[in-house]
Write a structure and sequence with these properties.
Blueprint lengths: L23 E7 L6 H13 L4 E5 L6 H5 L9 H6 L5 H7 L2 E2 L2 E4 L12 H10 L2 E6 L1 H5 L10 E6 L3 H13 L7 E6 L8 H8 L3 E5 L3 H8 L11 H18 L23
Parallel strand pairs: 1-5, 1-6, 2-4, 2-5, 6-7, 7-8
Antiparallel strand pairs: 3-4
The protein binds adenosine-5'-triphosphate and magnesium ion.
Adenosine-5'-triphosphate (ATP) binds next to helix 1 and helix 9.
Length: about 270
């Protein structure tokens, strides 16, 4: 196992910062366990992938994002392979990644636990992709170890309950300058009673959208699939439009990767819900 460490708040390395101007980077983190962050990250990545080459990055580990979305049987490199890959160009890396529908996955491997791939791997993917969605562990954000410094937007996924409020407040305090680019996605994965305005006020974070309780989603993920109702994808779809709009404004015309879609015609061999 290679010992990979994140330096505090370093985010994406400086030398690739220029190339990264044309990639939209979104960090997604849960205000509390089971708030729906991985689900929101996956739905957001699906929405982005309709319009640009998109990588969904699992920085949490454990079960692995491939299992969560039902792509565990799709061949391709997982964390340990990316850690060992060395100096592979971003476009080659991107082409080799397993696909969940149109979304390229950087996933942990439940059978080969190890630390996540180093930032350089993410940098290279960021040079080749149009959008990168990071599924961030809250503990890394709280410990200033998560690569949030170059995230265009950080999405804190919160339930409508006091624990989510407290968790979001803690995350906001730990995010440093990135807190100014952070918003809330209210998710009714667990039923809570706080109003949306109350959630916004008590966390001092702007509301980006709301994902309603979706029983279909709950039962489908229990079977290792991620199949939301159409209405559940609305808020992630809107967020994707905002994120890509901001990227396009920032990147300007020259050298800007427009409209590339990761392997639009390639279907994964395993199950796919994207
Ligand atoms: N809108 C929703 N409606 C109903 N169930 C949901 C919704 N969103 C997520 N879920 C379910 O809630 C559970 C937790 O979701 P998810 O894994 O996305 O949360 P998380 O915040 O990433 O959790 P963790 O703390 O384990 O990383 C899953 O079973 C998922 O299917
Ligand atoms: Mg999760």
């Amino acid at each position: 196992m290679q010992n990979t460490t994140y330096s505090p708040m370093s985010g994406w390395s400086g030398e690739t910062a220029r190339a990264l101007r044309s990639v939209a980077v979104v960090g997604v983190v849960a205000a509390r366990g089971g708030a729906g962050a991985t689900t929101v990250a996956a739905l957001l990545a699906t929405a982005l992938a309709r319009r640009t080459a998109t990588v969904l990055v699992d920085l949490v580990g454990g079960a692995g994002l491939d299992v969560t979305v039902g792509a565990e049987s799709v061949p391709g490199p997982r964390w340990p392979d990316l850690v060992a890959a060395g100096d592979v160009p971003g476009d080659q890396l991107l082409a080799a990644l397993p696909r969940w529908g149109r979304v390229a996955l950087v996933s942990a491997d439940r059978a080969r636990p190890c630390l996540p791939p180093p930032h350089e791997v993410l940098d290279r993917l960021g040079e080749a992709a149009g959008a990168v969605v990071l599924d961030l562990p809250a503990c890394d954000v709280l410990a200033h170890r998560a690569p949030v410094a170059h995230a265009d937007i950080v999405v804190v996924v919160a339930g409508r309950d006091a624990t989510s409020v407290a968790g979001a407040v803690a995350l906001r305090a730990a995010l440093g300058p990135a807190a100014a680019r952070t918003g809330l996605m209210a998710c009714d994965a667990r039923r809570g009673r706080l109003g949306l305005a109350e959630l916004e006020q008590s966390t001092n974070l702007p509301l980006l959208g709301r994902v309603r309780h979706d029983r279909t989603l709950l039962t489908s993920t229990e079977r290792g699939l991620l199949r939301p109702r159409r209405s559940t994808t609305r808020a992630p779809d809107t967020l994707a439009t905002t994120v890509l709009g901001a990227r396009d404004t920032r990147a300007g015309a020259p050298g800007h990767r427009q409209g590339r879609v990761v392997s639009a015609r390639r279907r994964p061999e395993g199950r796919s819900g994207a």
